[in-house]
Write a structure and sequence with these properties.
The complex is a heterodimer of chains A (437) and B (490). Chain A has 437 residues and is an alpha+beta fold. Chain A is built from 14 helices and 12 strands. Chain A is globular, with a radius of gyration of 22 Å. Classes of the chains: A alpha+beta (437), B alpha/beta (490).
């Protein structure tokens, strides 16, 4: 057994990943328009249980990640339990940690199992950008309160109307992927990272093409068949991811216009698109998996969550989280057979790769002598990433765990490193180990 | 308190009209000031142009590293070394290379920094001109200009001493030229071997916190002992106990608030007559109160017994002061004595009590040593009047000139314990005291300075807070003016 894998599991119980599935990842405002995040989550959980028929009475809990949550039922985990339906005794919670929500749900499940709180947990995440709520400004809500909660007189009604000017302040707000503290769009932050870390447009486009090619190959070879479950939407079945473009090329991508700055380098081609989808992972204690006859695919050697100042390099978090997770697991970067990094933007992935290879960054930001290391592109995102597959925010972490757990089991490789950046300056990482080794 | 010229200048319409009519009104620039506690990146996205960094001087990495860690976009004249590129890239801010003869259009630097430590003759001085001449006009409003030099006394030849001393004349003049735009200029004189101590000072000087400090030579030396760990850049006074006399209002109040903002527990001292104001302040900043007239015989003991509950004190700000202005012939003996007593003698007596390890009352714990703890900071309020003298202030100027020498001498005594002792000399600060000055004299006080306006109590508080911070270890025995580049007394 590799060093370090047992030092943080005090109970001696190990959680293992038994399996995982996801819905096809679909461009927002398309096929899944009518499926909200709860419906997508329930579809993924139903698919998981059809592929991995665990006796329903054995399921202890469901932990679900969500980023764009419905205001009237924010604990979507519980709604998914009730809609799937699972036994109502299956307790459920919802976690939200921006784009690391899915991984957070899974590591919480692993922690609960390793603490002895549960034996079988379903964890995952879903998001439907198509169903993001358009919010009324609080000004309108506060002004209208007397009409809703009191017995309004005509004067009250006039009073409320009088407060509705200027109109620009009372119009519904369209949701944007912007930082609350800085007001900056995430793409603008990534654009700044590209500029500051000197990531050229061509390198970004090349990474995007690589992502598409690898994802297309995985689909064509049937590699994803085990982990993508078809979903019925509006009478039609969606069987496969809709965003992956096998025929894209650097020439085609180089023609796209920058979207976040006139003289920028980020385009729709090298940024992850708005996506609807869900992914679910089945975790068990090692003993329970054996008792129920399920093959353990992978276990967590470590995980790490970090925060950086959103006003600086918003999406650099994985460059701090990945070394921390490696250190906790007692590994070096070179020990990792596979690396799966969430591709929010090609510029962000390349920035993280660049600073991880820098001695100065290691010395000044990580307090270590030498650089973490160079990431081998042959081990990185071997079946594509969010640029090609799409990024239904909270589903991405669960997709990555599923694909890497399956990859470890299928290839017999030993270890995989996961890295995810997120809004708010958050970063996450985890080290997965092949459960059979 | 309101400065009508500053308000007029801040009004775009009025500014345009004044300009069009050619009115001889020197509209001052509204100074950019910091809000809230110290930030991790006070220079976020500011453009800093650095010159003289191409050599192998020991300062290069410290200056460049400070600028990028503080969040600025570094521009370097000439070809930056691979080490600087590496250093910048660690923060996602690799240096942009500039050629002085072909500066890019639209370059508006927020700060110009020049390392003149290697200047040893007039040929070297020419490099100073060559760097600043094309850039000074492009400096943004509220800009910053910092030159690094060496003590002339450390030069290996008379010519070298002259070249280094020339830097001071240069900086003082440029400060007066760029003040109208709210910009400041300083000379940092680094003793050989003290290069590692400039970082916090450079951060401070480039930030809006030094808004009212300009035209200053500031010496950085290795005299005061420093703890092994590098100083923090935020929450710099966490866990520290600070004592501020005269805390009820004005500079004392502003200082107490700023020290508390950095995490210090502030013990606010003021006269019983000001109990209401000082108690309210202590409540808002979660500090504590000692009501005492600092000239009373039992005041030092009362302060020490309060500090004993907290195990000692780390930061001492001797701020309390009074004026009793009269020309010498008309001045009463009482006016003379009370000013000397409050402004100078009280400091001496309180310090004696703080230095005294034997005065520790029973039950105050087992820690030994003086109440003023190792690596402490002491800041005394001096005044530009103490430097230049003032009609009607023979008593006040005498006391403040005394304070300046007091900190110089005391710094020598306390350096082995890592304690720095400095003075702060405010110029025209907008307070209740200056608001009472007759209009014409008040206007003269405001305008006769490089920045063309009065300062705020918080401007002085910012300087005191900087001097109280662990990063200011290289500055001791100095008197820093906070006067906006006053034309008299600077």
């Amino acid at each position: 057994m590799p060093s370090g894998t047992d030092n943080h599991v005090l109970s001696g119980r190990r959680a293992v990943v038994v399996g995982g599935v996801r819905t096809p990842f679909v461009k927002a405002f398309a096929e899944f328009l009518k499926l909200d995040t709860i419906a997508l989550g329930a579809a993924a959980v139903r698919g998981l249980l059809s592929r991995y028929p665990v006796p329903r009475a054995e399921i202890d809990a469901l932990i679900w990640g969500g980023v764009v949550l419905p205001g009237l039922a924010p604990n979507i985990g519980r709604e998914i339990v009730l809609d799937t339906p699972l036994d109502p005794r299956v307790e459920a919670m919802t976690v939200t940690r921006a784009c690391t929500s899915g991984l957070q749900a899974i590591t919480l499940a692993a922690a609960a199992i390793e603490r002895g709180e549960a034996d079988v947990v379903i964890a995952g995440g879903s998001d439907s950008t198509s169903n993001a709520e358009v919010k009324l400004p609080q000004k309108v809500v506060h002004a209208a309160a007397p009409l809703i909660y009191g017995k309004p007189t005509p004067a009250d009604i006039l009073g409320v109307l009088a407060q509705m000017f200027p109109l620009s302040e009372v119009l519904p707000r369209v949701p944007r992927i912007a930082e609350r503290t800085t007001g900056k769009l995430m793409g603008e932050s990534a654009e700044e990272m590209a500029r500051r870390n000197e990531i050229p447009r061509a390198a970004q486009d090349e990474l995007a093409v690589l992502s598409h090619q690898r994802a297309a190959a995985a689909i064509a070879s049937g590699r994803f068949a085990a982990e993508v479950v078809p979903v019925e939407a509006g009478g039609r079945w969606v069987h496969t991811d809709t965003i992956v473009r096998a025929d894209t090329s650097v020439e085609k991508l180089s023609k796209l216009k920058p979207v976040f700055a006139a003289d920028g380098t980020l385009t729709a081609g090298n940024s992850s698109p708005l996506t609807d989808g869900a992914a679910a992972v089945l975790l068990m204690s090692e003993d329970k998996a054996r008792a129920l006859g399920f093959k353990a695919l992978a276990r967590f050697a470590s995980w790490a969550y970090v925060g950086v100042d959103p006003a600086d390099q918003l999406l650099i978090g994985p460059a701090l989280a990945m070394p921390l997770a490696l250190q906790r697991a007692g590994y070096d970067l070179g020990d990792m057979d596979l690396i799966d990094m969430h591709e929010a933007f090609a510029a962000q992935v390349l920035s993280v790769i660049k600073v991880m290879a820098s001695d100065a960054f290691a010395r000044l930001r990580l307090g270590r002598e030498k650089a973490v290391g160079r990431i081998d592109m042959d081990r990185l995102n071997v079946h594509g990433g969010s640029l090609a597959l799409g990024h239904p925010f909270a589903a991405t972490g669960a997709r990555m765990v599923t694909t890497m757990a399956n990859e470890l089991a299928a290839t017999g490789k030993r270890s995989a490193l996961l890295g995810i950046c997120a809004a708010g300056g958050l970063g996450a990482a985890a080290v997965l180990e092949n459960a059979a080794r | 308190m309101s400065d009508w010229l500053l308000q007029l200048g801040a009004h775009p319409q009025a500014r345009r009209i004044t300009k069009t009519l050619g009115l001889p009104l020197p509209l001052p620039q509204t100074l950019r000031r910091a809000r809230g506690p110290w930030e991790a990146r006070p220079l976020a996205d500011r453009v800093v142009v650095m010159g003289g960094l191409t050599g192998a001087q020991p300062l290069v990495a410290d200056v460049f590293g400070t600028v990028v860690a503080a969040g600025a976009n570094p521009h370097v004249v000439g070809m930056p070394s691979p080490a600087l590129v590496d250093l910048g890239s660690a923060y996602g801010r690799p240096p942009t290379s500039l050629a002085l003869e072909a500066l890019p259009d639209g370059l508006r630097p927020d700060a110009l920094v020049f390392d003149a430590t290697a200047v040893a003759d007039s040929r070297g001085l020419r490099a100073l001109y060559d760097f600043f001449h094309p850039l000074v006009g492009a400096l943004a409003a509220n800009g910053r200009l910092v030159v690094f030099g060496r003590p002339p006394s450390a030069a290996s030849s008379p010519e070298g001493a002259a070249a280094q001393a020339a830097l001071e004349g240069f900086v003082r003049s440029v400060a007066k030229e760029i003040g109208r735009r709210g910009s400041t200029a300083q000379l940092v004189i680094v003793e050989p071997g003290a290069e590692g101590r400039v970082s916090a000072l450079l951060r401070f000087l480039l930030s809006p916190r030094s808004a009212f400090v300009t035209g200053q030579p500031i010496a950085v030396d290795g005299r005061a002992a420093a703890p092994a760990e590098p100083p923090a850049t935020v929450r710099v006074l966490e866990g520290k106990v600070a004592l501020v006399t005269g805390a009820a209002r004005g500079i004392g109040e502003a200082t107490a608030r700023l020290l508390a903002g950095e995490g210090a527990h502030v013990v606010c001292v003021d006269r019983p007559a000001d109990a209401g104001a000082v108690s309210q302040l202590a409540r808002t900043i979660d500090g504590s109160v000692v009501l005492a007239d600092i000239t009373a015989a039992d005041a030092p003991a009362a302060i020490v017994s309060h500090l004993a509950e907290r195990g000692g004190v780390d930061v001492v700000v001797h701020n309390a002061g009074i004026t009793r202005d009269k020309t010498l012939g008309r001045m009463s003996a009482e006016a003379w004595s009370s000013v000397i007593d409050v402004n100078l003698d009280a400091i001496v007596r309180i310090d004696a009590a703080l230095d005294d390890a034997q005065a520790r009352p029973a039950g105050a714990g087992t820690r030994s040593g003086p109440w003023l703890r190792p690596f402490g900071r002491e800041i005394c309020l001096a005044s530009v009047a103490g430097i230049a003298g003032n009609v009607g202030q023979s008593n006040y100027a005498a006391s403040k000139a005394g304070v300046a020498a007091y900190v110089r001498r005391r710094a020598v005594d306390l350096a082995p314990r890592g304690i720095t002792v400095n003075g702060v000399a405010p110029g025209f600060i907008e307070t209740r005291m200056t608001a009472a000055i007759p209009l014409l004299i008040r206007e003269a006080g405001r305008r006769l300075s490089a920045l063309g306006q009065g300062g705020l109590p918080s401007d002085v508080g910012e300087v005191i807070t900087f001097l109280a911070s662990p990063g200011a270890v290289g500055i001791t025995g100095a008197v820093l003016r906070v006067c906006g580049g006053a034309l008299i007394g600077a």
